Known about the structure:
Layout: E1 2-3, E2 12-15, E3 18-28, E4 36-43, E5 49-55, E6 59-62, E7 65-76, E8 79-84, E9 90-94, E10 109-115, E11 121-125, E12 129-137, E13 150-155, E14 160-164, E15 172-176, E16 181-186
Amino acid sequence: MANTSDIRKGLCIKYNHDIYKIIEFLHVKPGKGPAFVRTKLKSVTTGKVIDNTFSAGHKIDDVRVETHKFQYLYNEGDTFHFMNTDDYTQIQLEKSTLDRTDLLKEGEVVTLVINSEDNMPLSVDMPASVVLEVTATEPGVKGNTATNATKPATVETGAKIKVPLFINEGDKIRVDTDKGQYQERVKE
């Protein structure tokens, strides 16, 4: 058993007869009244996201988890195939358990969170950022840089991302997997 002071991003808890992963949280101490924790929870079984508020000191039932490194191999429709980098066993996951499938490139190593009680995969944690090649974008117009102007670009995984005007086709860019936003151009 844990309490609200143990809440952190990525913690898996049992709540309302389901297992949820905490994707956002905020400790709030108002001027009047008791403190509380505002959370955003994602169901690991259905993928549904709910908002919930826990009062300070509230007991929460955390789930014991193990993490393993898996390499993304390929997908067949909504089924994604991964391989354990230690023992080379393969596992298949449904699209609903993954967060950012549009940024997942073949060969990418991700962290799989597994329930240690029943060995069921709970979620897949992407690396903080990924390097992707821009496959399609409009050329930037010279002199159109008065503000932080952006343009749409398509990367090798098919995701559409807003990039600065100086990015061209063939450039490699670093993308934040949490927000799906451009971070920087990568020189090789």
